[in-house]
Amino acid sequence: MRPSISVALAGRGRSRAASDAVSGPAGSVAAQAATAFPAADAEERTRDRVLNAVLEHGPISAAELGDLLGFTPAAVRRHLDHLSRNGVIEVKRAARAGAGAGRPARRYVLSSQGQSSLGNDYLDIATLALQRLGEIAGPEAVRQFAVERFGAMERRYAPEIDAAGPDITARAQALSEALSRDGFVASTASIEARAPLPAALSSVQLCQGHCPIQQLAAQFPVFCDVETDVFSRLVGVDVRRLSTLARGGHVCTTHIPTGRPAARGPHSPATTPGNLDEVSNHLQERP
Questions:
Q1: Domain with CATH 1.10.10.10 in the chain
Q2: Which of 226, 221, 225, 234 is nearest to 284 (CA)?
């Protein structure tokens, strides 16, 4: 079960001040004021429900939150605005489904501050464990750990992406849809090269607006490298990582060339340790 998060409200603790007020007319005023505190407590509990829903289901839109919690749009937005001002949630913009143009959808996730308020001991433990693993067994052991972690993703995604056929753009779109279902808030944008540029320069930009291991990947970039390897095998061409959330980018962006033939046949995941020793030709870049 995910932990509950409480957001401090301005004026918390006023009930103690009210109870300590002097008797008489001033005490009567204080007593009247105290009757408002249950409403404030209820407001705080409601805000906690919104925050926990963002934690459990984010990235999530305001409309989806309203449907989930049974709140009016105005109520949801009031709480979201408060949580945003306090820095515990943030907006991730994602392209709307379909090819039509339009403003990106606003979806909410916990911010780094919001995550830290959970008391994320798991992050410290994971970091220390990986650091110790590297000290004992070397960097390749950390890489192997990352390979095994992303191997499960690759095995789940491969049948769906292979079903999209040999077209690289279609495979990239299938990958984007699979990532979005796993909460990565993924989207694609096609970039067609026009004369006098050669058609071989056409590409798809795959963007991920959310990363569940962002802080861990910031300390161990090999996680980003291995994820890029997986993307390359899944879509069937060599790809290039242009930016990552772990290195301060607004989104993780992967450049997928579509104007030249696939570099390999049907998807075949890496199965031999020798693949781990090959020098990556993705030319990955991070801001």
A1: 43-119
A2: 225
Q: Quick one: CATH architecture of 43-119? A: Orthogonal Bundle (1.10)
- The pTM of the full predicted model, rounded to 2 decimals, is 0.58
- 139: how many CB neighbours lie within 10 A of its CB? 11
pLDDT single digits (tens) 23-56: 444 444 444 444 444 566 777 888 888 888 887 7
CATH 3.30.1380 domain span(s) along the chain? 123-277
Q: Nearest-5° angle of CA 49, CA 177, CA 212?
A: 50
d(CA 39, CA 43): 6
Residue 207, φ and ψ in degrees, nearest 5:
-115, 140
Q: What is the pLDDT of residue 257?
A: 95
Dist. CA 287–CA 240, nearest whole Å: 13
Residue 152 and residue 158: Cα distance in Å, rounded?
A: 10
Q: If you search the block for the tokens 């790809």, which residue do you land on?
A: 239
CATH code 1.20.120 for 123-277: no
Per-residue pLDDT tens over the stretch 71-121: 888 888 898 888 888 888 888 776 555 445 556 678 888 776 666 565 555
